[in-house]
Design brief:
Number of domains: 2
Distance between the termini: 26 Å
CATH superfamily of the largest domain: Alpha-D-Glucose-1,6-Bisphosphate, subunit A, domain 3
CATH class of the largest domain: Alpha Beta
CATH architecture of the largest domain: 3-Layer(aba) Sandwich
Largest sheet: 3 strands, antiparallel
Strand content: 15-25%
Number of strands: 5
Radius of gyration: 18 Å
Structural class: alpha+beta
CATH topology of the largest domain: Alpha-D-Glucose-1,6-Bisphosphate, Chain A, domain 3
Order of helices and strands: HHEEHHEHHEEH
Amino acid sequence: MTNLGFKRFAEANEINVAETKVGDRYVLEEMLKHDYKIGGEQSGHIIFKNYATTGDGQLSGAMLASIMSATGKSASETASVMTVLPQTLVNIKASPELKAKLTDDKDITAAIEEVKRTLGKRGRILVRASGTEPLIRVMLEGEDIVEIKRLAKQVAKVIEGKA
């Protein structure tokens, strides 16, 4: 679930980005399968395969410091290569039954598809059942925070109506 701004930056710079299920184990699995050297999650877990098989905050900091030293750029200059798009997340309490029918319910699917059509390339939506909590997560990203918050609430209302 990396920020759409990162994906746009990577595409503009011809950097391959692979997407996996949420979780370090899925990221590492994909890295090993394709011999990728770096992988990460939005949570901040960054895996440098040549040094570790799990996220390590101190290692990430050292790698950033190394890049800053090599380029002579500050942290803010280094980070400014991409634009972070606004994001909103709505958590909905959900029974195991609701989580199970999430991808099969026609009304929920229709609400998600409507948002995809509305946003087009200006944003994205991800709706998924949490693997660790009794929640369904509705995440939207886009160029307009007001619009994505409204759309997230719209989808959440449909899901809540199924509880």
